[in-house]
Amino acid sequence: MKLIIDDADVKAIRRIWDYYPCAGVTTNPSILAKSGRPPFEVLREIRAIIGPDAQLHAQVIAREADGMVKDAERIVRELGDNTYVKVPSLPEGFKAMKALHAKGIKITATAIYTPMQGYLAGMCGAQYAAPYVNRIDNMGYDGIKVACEIHEIYKKNDIPCEVLAASFKNSQQVLELCKYGIGAATVACSVIDNFVKNAAIDEAVEAFIHDFEGLTAKGTTMSSC
Ligand code: E4P
Prior knowledge:
- The structure is a single chain.
- It is built from 11 helices and 8 strands.
- The protein has about 220 residues and is of the alpha/beta class.
- The chain has a single domain (about 1-195), classed as Aldolase class I (TIM Barrel, Alpha-Beta Barrel), CATH 3.20.20.70.
- The protein has an 8-stranded parallel β-barrel, surrounded by 7 helices.
- It starts with a strand and ends in a 10-residue tail after the last helix.
- The mean pLDDT is about 95.
């Protein structure tokens, strides 16, 4: 399961990118709005941080298929080949996905709440389908189950699309999906920051350093003892 950053806070992205094994960055219009900056200015800055080979996902805004295709072409022109265009998984979106697939533009089907949306997006040529795990949970359904069902549908029907699970509020939701071997999970920087936050880990590492410095001298490491 690839780990992707779901954020447009460039400072936070730079930090997480530096520490963790991330495959790219996803955004959506609400995430971009939080930055308060022109959308392509932020997206180009994110592209510069992650480099040309990493995945960058940006969403179309138009309501109709023709407009979505135009939005997609601009997104790819501005942000380069390794850019996935996020298209909402509703009727106009499926029409746009078919057209984009024919043009060879990479697609992430988004706003997925049901396995049927996932199935249709895969059949329309999307590379990724993004079920909203936490939002589904909040509706009283099971977001993990929806993501796993879509994963199963792709495997059983040989549909070359992967689940890119989205909308997480905690580490446990992410880890649960990792066990099923889905394609990717996209997670906000604030949630990734809590992946490894545990006093026991810090205490263990501090004790090792303290003991080593007792053996050698304060401030020494393996490269300087
Ligand atoms: C990803 O495609 C979604 O845009 C995003 O993860 C939604 O997250 P939220 O439910 O925290 O807004």
